[in-house]
Input
Amino acid sequence: MCRHLTERIKIVFPALTAIDENADQVNPLLIGACALMLITLLVVAAPRNGRFERCVLTGAFPVQAVRVVQLNNIRGNMFNQYRWGGYLIYTLWPQHKVFIDGRADLHGEPLYRRYERAIKMKSGWRQVLDDYDIQWLLIRDTSPLVRGLQLLPQYALIYSDGEARLFIRVDGVNRPVYEAFKAGDLKRPPPLQVP
Output
């Protein structure tokens, strides 16, 4: 397979082999540099037709829920949906650190198993939230964990939009946010303008 890849690279990027005509393999650093240049070119030259923005704004990510977090200064350790981790890093870091993101291989299997225990409400799911001192959760509407959190008096649902649900711990660092929510003073973002 490597030989075939090398041949394809030589066809697509003949300049890479012009350095050494006798080379059997292409330098991996040159491949990486060319890939980076190609990606940069695609990003810079990509048409600005709003497709990416529409994808983000129409349900692929919890855009409005993140705005609620930011507007209300929600603090403390979060528990988040696995598939939203990268987006949450992009929008909330460094103020917030995600519980988990798409790099499960980096985080290791034990953390992923604990995440799975909590999100699927398997035995010991409440202990996971306690062990990590979870102060707020941003999860999908369809997550089994929604049912469990609604039964626990120490968590309150303060935002839901049909895609995401935002729960906070009522007896923790977000007590002022909970009080604002109960009083009807929770700050909410304006509706999204989809291009």
